[in-house]
Amino acid sequence: MSEKKRIVSGMRPTGALHLGNLHGALANWINMQDDYDCFFFIADWHALTSDYEDPGNIARFTENMMIDWLGAGLDPEKSTLFVQSAVVSHAELFLLLSMITPVPWLERNPTYKEQIEALDNKDLSTFGFLGYPVLQAADIIIYRANGVPVGIDQAPHIELTREIARRFNHLYGHVFPEPETILTETSKILGTDRRKMSKSYNNAIYLSDPPEEIRKKTAQMITDPQRVRKSDPGDPDVCNVFTFHRFYSPAVEREEINAACRKAAIGCVDCKKKMAERLVGYLAPIRERIGHLRQDTNLVRDIIDRGNRRAAEEAAITMQRVRDAVKI
Ligand code: TRP
Ligand code: SF4
Fold first, then answer.
1. How confident is the model over 260-278, as pLDDT tens digits?
2. What is the DSSP string of 124-186?
3. Is the CATH number 1.10.760.10 carried by domain 208-290?
4. Cα(254) to centroid of ligand 2, in Å?
5. Which residues are near ligand 2 (CB < 6 Å)?
6. Which of 64, 195, 215, 328 has the fewest CB within 10 Å, making it most exposed?
7. Residues 45, 50, 53, 54: is their CA dihedral positive or negative?
8. How far apart are CA 103 and CA 112, in angstroms?
9. Hey, what CATH class is 6-189+297-326 in?
């Protein structure tokens, strides 16, 4: 048995991964692979809670998301990478947990209220959507996780998970550790329009974007809004393009640009071109891996199958204890 602490986290398959995802959740997961016993999964059932009317993309997005994960550096030799719906015992545990979860705990959940208002084009007055955090709790505790790396937006769900685990243990005897929230720093990369990078804002640069696309998107980026003419000095500290340079350009080049911008010795067009080439270079190995994996669907299926089996074995151990505890 490994001495490492176990962590579990998931992502809904909502489409291609972008730089915001990479420098947020994903980079964090990749870094944790050596120090933790990691279970990372694609939450396709959770995608269904809001997209039940139109589930046609979920399976394709799931496979693409796994390809993006692998391309970015999640390693199936180190971590268990799997798909939620392939481990059906999540649903069994979800059912048992739903018996003991008071409805007011769910109605009080801040994300529940926010989402219902935010997604007013969808009818989310379903049992499944209310129960979203109960399924999430099942996802986590079915692996007897010690920790859950998530962004701050998910913190209430992990708190609820702890409460549900505690209630189960109290009613039936100790089965589940109470998992800690391991807060992921949010990505400092903004979208090309300086808002949060998001698919729905149409301001994202994707891991799989080809170089021409990256150059085009970079050319449209908003820079220091005060810098109107090329002869005006700029302020890199308020410029989103410069933030990208911080991520992708070597220190020497970055400092040259920093100084040149402040004395109007470089124009934004050139500055963006330099950044775009650095970003293209940074993404090149990721894009290449993604390209290979897209060609080799058998390999991807194989990786997913192995992850699913490994996850199912671990879930089965827990479920035996659960059934013993509940006596059913
Ligand atoms: N709710 C999470 C999100 O939207 C996804 C998720 C589902 C998850 N199950 C999980 C995250 C279990 C961590 C652990 O981002
Ligand atoms: Fe931003 Fe570069 Fe233009 Fe300066 S030169 S404002 S850092 S894009």
1. 999 999 999 999 999 999 9
2. --SHHHHTHHHHHHHHHHTTT-SEEEE-GGGHHHHHHHHHHHHHHHHHH-S----PEEEEPPP
3. no
4. 11
5. 223-224, 227, 234, 236, 239, 241-242, 257, 261, 266, 268, 271-272
6. 328
7. negative
8. 12
9. alpha beta
pLDDT tens digit string along 261-320?
Answer: 999 999 999 999 999 999 999 999 999 999 999 999 999 999 999 999 999 999 999 999
User: How many angstroms does the Cα of residue 248 sit away from the middle of ligand 1?
Assistant: 29
Domain boundaries, the chain: 6-189+297-326, 208-290
Pick out the chain residues at pLDDT < 50.
none
5 CB-contact burial (10 Å; exposed 0-12 / middle 13-18 / buried 19+): middle
pLDDT of residue 119: 84
**Nearest bound ligand to the CA of residue 219:** 2
Q: In degrees to the nearest 10, what's the CA dihedral of 143, 149, 152, 153?
A: -50
Q: Ligand 2 test: best mutation among 217, 224, 228, 262, most atoms within 8 Å of CB?
A: 224
**Farthest-apart Cα atoms in the chain, separation:** 77
Alpha-carbon gap, residue 186 to 24, rounded angstroms: 5
Pocket of ligand 1, beta carbon within 6 A: 8-12, 43, 46, 136, 139-140, 148, 150, 154
- How many of the other CB atoms lie within 10 Å of CB of 47? 22
Place of tokens 């769910």: 106
In whole angstroms, give the CA distance from residue 269 to residue 237: 17
Residue 157 CA to ligand 1 center (angstroms) comes to 8
**Residue 149 — φ and ψ, nearest 5°?**
-75, 115
The radius of gyration computed from the CA coordinates of the chain, to the nearest angstrom, equals 22
Local structure of 307: helix, strand or coil? helix
- Encoding tokens for residue 280? 């293209």
Q: Strand 6-11 vs strand 37-42: parallel, antiparallel, or unpaired?
A: parallel
Which of 222, 229, 242 has most ligand 2 atoms within 8 Å of CB, for mutation?
A: 242
> How many angstroms does the Cα of residue 184 sit away from the middle of ligand 2?
29
Residue 110 is encoded by which pair of tokens?
């801040």
